[in-house]
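Can't paste images in this forum, so I'm doing it all in text. The chain is below; anyone willing to post the predicted structure tokens underneath?
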Amino acid sequence: MSSSAPQDTGHRLWSVDEHLADVLSAVRPLEPIELQLLDAQGCVLVEDVTVPVALPPFDNSSMDGYAVRTADVQGASEEFPAVLTVVGDVAAGSGELPTVGPGEAARIMTGAPLPPGAEAVVPVEWTDGGTGGGAAAGMTPASAAPEQAGGEVRVHRAAEARAHVRARGSDVQAGDLALAAGTVLGPPQIALLAAIGRGTVRVRPRPRVVVLSTGSELVQPGEALTAGTIYDSNSFALAAAARDAGAIAYRVGAVADDADTLRATIEDQLIRADLLVTTGGVSVGAYDVVKEALSSVGHSTGGTDGEDVDGGRMDFRKLAMQPGKPQGFGTIGPDHTPLLALPGNPVSSYVSFELFVRPAIRALMGLPESEVRRPSVRAVLSADKALGSPAGRRQFLRGTYDPESGTVSPVGGSGSHLIAALAHADSLMVVPEDVTSVEPGTELEVILLG
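Text version of the structure:
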């Protein structure tokens, strides 16, 4: 590990866009691997997948009923039913199939292959079910009433050719493109891959993100608070946010304000991290130990402030934003693992995650640029009074967005410790750097969090 001191580039204010660009320039998509289908859920496909066989692979019934020839049921009615000889049962997965000849029918179950000679399926409700009575309400399993696989059935309605038959290849044809490279694999995509016989698939794995919160005042939820302590909420919020972004998240319990302990913890976590996130300890206080701890594990990113790429330095910056002014970024360890050091105030931490960490996770996944950042819309401010914003800072205010009216309303104040307000927000209202007051009725950019 390098022993160089961290680089504090706080002599100038970085813009939000500059910092994000610097972060993304150091992040490369993870190398593809072959995974079993369920392990690939949430991952990004790196190859086009074509269909090897038609789906469905054979004509099959979409109903429980009887496979018939259309000529045999032409003109059938309840008063003058067509009486057909039942020549056997066809269940889903049947191999040997009975042939349906003139005046004959075969009992057939949903998903079962259409037997030779049959041209349509009449639902069991259109028949007497072979009982000799009125309209049947259902079919008795062959195992419970094997005798109903023979005898006669009365059909009360006619059926057109191919009625209630799912044609071979009606879903996809052999050679069709099933899924394109770049697709995120959710449950429907996993189902399609399984349906066409793929047991494994080549994807970029979900990034492993380790989240550490720092502070001697932090107590884990469920434990008793003592004088001067608070519960650690940041690590839970950021681990959950990392999962929401598509990562596999590992939450490390709060680390005390001791540089050696934090350094050792970070080095221990490198083995399972594609990205590390710390929260707290990046400001200018006497106990902000993240800068001190990272002085011997950092590798600079080669950013825009003239850092020495081989000097082994983390960059700590001040950004022209509120909340979230202090930020740290670099790469650490032998694999140059990216690390983002976020401020410790809960709202500052969460807003910083959404703006910088989430895009880094999405970039590691190999998602296209259009899917790296949260979507944003334009909305009209609905408020009782004007909203103030500091000059020269891009402010991110919590809000609730109403898509029907195209309006956004503020939630809570601008304080960076107001967790309750954050819990009720579904968006962030963006006030540009050159705006100090936003009047009701003004149109704003709104970042959607849901």
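Residues 1-6, 299-312 have pLDDT under 50 and may be disordered. The longest strand covers residues 82-90.
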